[in-house]
Write a structure and sequence with these properties.
Helix content: over 70%
Strand content: under 5%
Number of domains: 2
Largest sheet: none
Distance between the termini: 38 Å
Oligomer: single chain
Order of helices and strands: HHHHH
Number of helices: 5
Mean pLDDT: 79
Structural class: mainly alpha
Number of strands: 0
């Protein structure tokens, strides 16, 4: 998605579109999104391939893992798989955000010497 956004000049496209008179929703729908269609589809297919591959590997192993456990209990129970998935999101997202914020600060402070630096 990021590569798709970097390949188009959004500012020029929106300014040219605004000069013709449409609103922001029309510009987004008819100008920006068609340019991002390939990036959106590529990201969706890559995500699908990764998820299907991980599920297949987890399903073929001897012990049940999280994805196969959710699939196994969803056959018998209605609300428990959704509750387990929400609990896993509630646990993993804050941990991911804290690791991103602490890792991002360390990366911005360290600067590799350039060709003119001693």
């Amino acid at each position: 998605m990021d590569a798709g956004l970097q390949t188009i000049d959004i500012r020029t496209l929106t300014e040219a579109s605004q000069s013709l008179g449409p609103g922001w929703l029309t510009i987004l729908w008819k100008v920006i999104l068609p340019k991002l269609r390939v990036a959106i589809l590529s990201g969706a297919f890559l995500t699908l391939a990764i998820v299907v591959g991980e599920f297949t590997i987890a399903n073929s192993l001897a012990r049940p893992m999280f994805a196969t456990y959710l699939q196994m209990i969803s056959g018998n129970l209605a609300y428990e798989p959704a509750a387990v998935a929400l609990m896993s999101f509630a646990i993993t997202w804050p941990r991911w955000a804290s690791s991103r914020s602490s890792g991002g600060a360390a990366r911005t402070r360290s600067k590799s010497p350039g060709p003119t630096d001693p």
